[in-house]
Amino acid sequence: MKLTISRNELNDAIQHVSKAVASRTTIPILSGIKVDASFNGVTLTASDTDISIQSFIPLETPNKTIGTVERTGSVVLTAKFFVEIIKKLPHEEVHIEVGERFQTLITSGATEIQLVGLDPEEFPVLPTVQEDQVVSVPGDLLRDMIRQTVFAVTTNESTPILTGVLWNLQDGIYKFVATDRHRLASRTATVELYDVRFSNIVISGKTLNELAKIVPDQNVMVDIVVADNQVLFKLGNVLFYSRMLDGTYPDTSKIIPQSFKTELILNTKALSESIDRAYLLSREEKTNIVRLVTTDNGGIEISSSSSELGKVTEQLAVTEIRGEPLKIAFNSKYMLDVLKVIDSEELFIGFNGAMSPIIIRPNDHENSLHLILPYRTTN
Q1: What is the separation of C-alpha 246 from the centre of its chain, rounded to a whole number of angstroms?
Q2: pLDDT for res 311
């Protein structure tokens, strides 16, 4: 293999695929990035068996020449060094040549680096995905749907299915759900596809966080291909493969109340800042407990305390309050996680008493919904 390529283009592709490199593995080949050079372009691939990412660099674009391939071939280079080396090369042009036993010579300007390559035949073959079920969604929408749900997955590996986000598509309604049994986040969106449907697709939260990092900022469409146990995301010249989690996701629809004894409408930013201040003390107790009480003057009181540091109490005006008086305690960290992703100036909070789930959603639309279980406290 012998090629010349733009350092910036090569570095961009490496940054994409390196997110799939296995950090801890007993299989040495998985700690590498596979480089395939053809007369059409250069393809980089990385995989940790759960996710695989492939990035294609064309040699020519309408505006410029990115590289040339003098001799086709393949090699696997250890990602730890390959990623850093390419990033730090001094010249815009990079020459890569692979010799016997996959010894690889990388030159750029006056810099010359020799790397020990690995046999590309040992690298895992990418999954074969039948493109029967394909959904196209705007990249910014996909990223928002991930951001507004993925924080609620569990980190407890004893329930693997809950470490992922549930995806359903029925009758043109795309829905994500995540829960760790103490809280729940859901997000829906309408897509113009009524002949495609799928259910019980669960994708690891860690995988989705990595996917969100490489979804382009500009308004591009992402093709999502659903197969038997794999989901493929097509992002321009980048292919992102993810294995689905095994198991059946629990039915969470029954725990979401449809009516409330107490309802609040209030400013999202004001509530977030108030709870953030209360969180400073509550986290010292390792409980994160913050209390919310409705007051006689038609507002609410937010408070928290620390046995060592003291107490914080704050009165907060609300836009609207309906129903019964309320006194409730909850995990302030969970509430702050929700408030960070609410994309509305005002929010609705519904309560059915001190021990019933708290429901939070934007006040101006119903695309997202969040649930937090309250704490039982002695006072």
Answers
A1: 19
A2: 92
